[in-house]
Amino acid sequence: MALPASLDEAVAALTAMPTAVPVAGGTDLMAAVNSGLLRPAGLVGLGRISEIRGWQYQDGHALLGAGLTLARMGRPDFAALIPGLAAAARAAGPPQVRNAGTLGGNIVTSAPTGDTLPVLAALEANLVIAGPGGARREIPVSHLLAGREMLRPGELVGYVRVPLLHAPQTFLKATGRTGPGRATASVALVLDPARRGVRCAVGAVAAMPLRPLEAEEWVASIIDWDGERTLVPEALAAFGDYVAAACIPDPPPPPDGTEPQTLPPAALHLRRTVAALARRALGRALS
């Protein structure tokens, strides 16, 4: 196992050992190893790389190190910076998971239930990727999650660039049990007053966070951005229904003109859950 002290050393180690797997907190990786799903030929430990365990300010953005733990992101000083991401980090699981799990691990694993992922999608965050020879390139986080752009051999996610909106952000999730647990559905919502926009992402209902763009545009058009930014309950409910229907649509009509199919009860329940989360998230952001 290699234990590099810098990001470029880690890239060099991965380049020298193409079959090695990088590991930080290991909350997902070690679960896969213990269950027999993964047998890595080697490991490159990232725990000694101090440069990716904090954050800095850069041109109206926060540059977050990929090694930031979920526990660190849940603290009040970080919550004052990016409240939606802090809320997701606090909801990510029991203390032992939050103390070990990292932001970069959440992104690279890309589990559908990853709590930080819908927040990053709603914030339209970018990834700064470190490559061989000191190379750096930047891609939208949504491209990696959707598989439109992938990490190349020897590359690592070094940082996450997040715009500082200085506006309300909310994250809510539903689980199948009381207390910390994997999300059955989650909703991240951020307001962007400078662009008079609302950005929403729904997690856990698909392989990647979903952005209901038409619902975002509709609700942004009815908010009084120069006034109190409040909406009547009926508008909040309509937004929730709009988001849920976009993310969990009805089955397409049969081509032969027979009776349209309906969603199974489990999908209908999930749709109602997403609608409730989206309605509450927007209400809290506007309150």
Keywords:
three-stranded antiparallel sheet, alpha+beta, 12 helices, globular, 38% helix, 287 residues, FAD-bd_PCMH_sub2, oxidoreductase, Diverse_Substr_Oxidored, 10 strands
Descriptive notes:
The structure is a single chain. The protein is globular. It has twelve helices and ten strands. It is an alpha+beta fold. Helices cover 38% and strands 21% of the residues. Helix 11 crosses helix 12. The mean pLDDT is 93. The chain has a five-stranded antiparallel beta sheet. Strands 8-9-10 form a three-stranded antiparallel beta sheet, sandwiched between helices. The chain has a two-stranded parallel sheet with strand order 1-2. InterPro entries: CO_DH_flav_C_dom_sf, Diverse_Substr_Oxidored, FAD-bd_PCMH, FAD-bd_PCMH-like_sf, FAD-bd_PCMH_sub1, FAD-bd_PCMH_sub2, Mopterin_DH_FAD-bd. One of its GO terms (molecular function) is anaerobic carbon-monoxide dehydrogenase activity. Keywords: FAD, Flavoprotein, Oxidoreductase.
What radius of gyration results from the CA coordinates?
20 Å
Q: What class would the helix/strand composition place it in?
A: alpha+beta
Report the uncertain regions.
none
Helix content: 25-40%
Q: Determine the N-to-C terminus distance.
A: 50 Å
Beta fraction? 15-25%
Helix and strand pattern? HEHEEEHHHHHHEEHEEEEHHH
Q: How would a crystallographer describe the biggest sheet?
A: 5 strands, antiparallel
Number of helical elements: 12
**Major β-sheet strand ordering:** 3-4-7-5-6
